[in-house]
Amino acid sequence: MKKKELLYEGKGKRLFKTADENLLISEFKDDLTAFNAQKKGSEKGKGALNCKISTELFKLLEKNGIKTHLVETISDNEQLVKKVDIIPLEVVVRNIATGSLTKRLNIKDGTVLPFSLLELYFKDDDLGDPLLNDEHCTLLNIASKDELEVLKNEAKKINTILKSFFKDKGLNLVDFKVEFGKDKDGNILLSDEISPDSCRFWDINTNEKLDKDRFREGIGNVKVAYEEVLARILDNN
Ligand code: UDP
Whose CA is nearest to atom 7 of ligand 1? Predict the structure, then answer.
């Protein structure tokens, strides 16, 4: 399947049309952005790492009953995916408090949450991706009540599967963001990516951060950390 014209360029990926109107090619970029793109950078090979990591995790989730947009991975940094209309929500699940949650509610960084906290953010850069509740979603016609139930349940299932998978790999899944889309038949599919750009991973023994916080906080060795995450995912022991 060959790339045709560029349909959309986001911060981390480009989407291209293909000869099949129901399929797109998603190309993972090396660019890194943080704080609503106020901080920008690039790491050669980061796109390929995220493509591999996301492919492995989407395959794991598919095996466990989660429907995704992934058809197949066709090169180091490209996936063939089903065309979906993205629901403009960032669905965040948190197991350990860090990042914006600690600042907004003055919760101590690293607090293990008594239950997995699900949050919805409106994907709107101009508004700074505000936190929404279900009624805001209905008010703005972002998703119906039934669709919200589906995507919240899917996000919680994804958390259960990934949390246990990463625990076996010596990583705490601190939090993550997922996005969903609707295919031509109205099915809600996990879309976008799951990678160290969209998740936080802390080493279980040392609490070392192995995710985009290394870029956000200027810790360095971003690519080394992403390589470590991929190595642990691929490690079958
Ligand atoms: N996240 C993301 N994209 C965003 C905002 C957040 O992928 O635009 C992810 C982030 O990597 C983390 C989780 O969602 O795993 C929760 O992020 P948080 O709300 O704490 O935001 P931040 O501290 O990054 O502003």
Answer: 198
Identity of residue 151: L
The band of 53, judged by pLDDT with boundaries at 50, 70 and 90, is: very high
92 lines ligand 1 (CB under 6 A): yes
Instruction: Work out the pLDDT band at 44, boundaries 50, 70, 90.
Output: very high
* Exposure letters 153-185 (e unless 16+ CB within 10 A, then b): ebbeebbebbbebbeebebbbbbbbbbbbbbee
User: CA 9, 149, 82, 164: dihedral to nearest 10 degrees?
Assistant: 90
- Rounded to two decimals, the pTM is 0.97
Domain boundaries for CATH 3.30.200.20 within the chain: 6-82
- Architecture per CATH, domain 6-82, reads as 2-Layer Sandwich (3.30)
Partners of residue 34 on adjacent β-strands:
39
Domain with CATH 3.30.470.20 in the chain: 85-221
Q: Name the fold adopted by 85-221.
A: D-amino Acid Aminotransferase; Chain A, domain 1 (3.30.470)
Residues 186-219: tens digit of each pLDDT: 999 999 999 999 999 999 999 999 999 999 999 9
Ligand 1 pocket, residue 199 CB under 6 Å: yes
